[in-house]
């Protein structure tokens, strides 16, 4: 089932300003920054113990994070659970009537496979499932 909270995604308007807050002032070290063209985002990962904070900046307003920012402003965007076998997990969730945004795994950042569960199935929270690259 779920191994751990892999990361918490936070939508930010300005990644450099957010890094100044989270890295320099809050004191969380930066692991790396990468662009995820499929999601039209620039992403910074900051480790906190076994988990991470994922700062998400939209590279285009017409993108999932861009639309979130326009509608709800900055803040927590999603919570990601790490799973061992994403395809199998999606089958189980589907059989239980969970509403899935992605019915099959797709490529995420750093070579992992990801899928999203619709917030309507989690009381308003967008949930990402992630299977790390082997
Ligand atoms: Co994420």
Can you tell me about this structure?
- The chain is an alpha+beta fold and 134 residues long.
- It has one domain: Roll (2,3-Dihydroxybiphenyl 1,2-Dioxygenase, domain 1).
- 22% of the residues lie in helices and 40% in strands.
- It has 3 helices and 8 strands; from the N terminus they run βαβββαβαβββ.
- An 8-stranded mixed sheet has the order 2-3-4-1-5-8-7-6.
- A hairpin with a 2-residue loop joins β3 and β4.
- Bound molecules: cobalt (II) ion.
- Cobalt (II) ion binds next to β1 and β5.
In brief:
The protein has a single domain, classed as 2,3-Dihydroxybiphenyl 1,2-Dioxygenase, domain 1, CATH 3.10.180.10. 22% of the residues lie in helices and 40% in strands. The chain has 3 helices and 8 strands.
Provide the number of structural domains. 1
Q: Spatial order of the strands in the main sheet?
A: 2-3-4-1-5-8-7-6
What is the mean pLDDT?
A: 94
Tell me the series of helices and strands, N- to C-terminal.
EHEEEHEHEEE
Please state the CA-atom Rg, rounded to the nearest Å: 15 Å
Helix count equals 3
The name CATH uses for the topology is 2,3-Dihydroxybiphenyl 1,2-Dioxygenase, domain 1
Largest sheet: 8 strands, mixed
- Distance, first to last CA: 17 Å
**Distinct small molecules bound, one entry per kind:** cobalt (II) ion
CATH structural class: Alpha Beta
The fraction of residues in strands falls at 35-45%
Helical residue percent band: 10-25%
SSE class: alpha+beta
Q: Give the low-pLDDT segments.
A: none
Query: Could you give me the name of the CATH homologous superfamily?
Result: 2,3-Dihydroxybiphenyl 1,2-Dioxygenase, domain 1
Strand elements, count: 8
| Overall geometry | globular
> What's the architecture in CATH terms?
Roll
């Amino acid at each position: 089932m779920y191994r751990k909270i892999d990361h918490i995604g936070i939508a930010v308007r300005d990644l450099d300003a957010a890094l100044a807050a989270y890295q320099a002032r809050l004191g969380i070290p930066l692991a790396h920054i990468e662009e995820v063209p499929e999601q039209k985002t620039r992403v910074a990962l900051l480790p906190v113990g076994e988990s991470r904070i994922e700062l998400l900046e939209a590279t285009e307003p017409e993108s999932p994070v861009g639309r979130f920012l326009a509608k709800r402003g900055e803040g927590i965007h999603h919570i990601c659970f790490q799973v061992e076998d994403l395809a199998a997990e999606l089958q189980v969730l589907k059989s239980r009537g969970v509403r899935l945004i992605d019915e099959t795994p797709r490529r995420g950042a750093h070579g992992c496979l990801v899928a999203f569960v619709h917030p309507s199935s989690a009381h308003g929270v967008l949930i990402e499932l992630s299977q790390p690259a082997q």
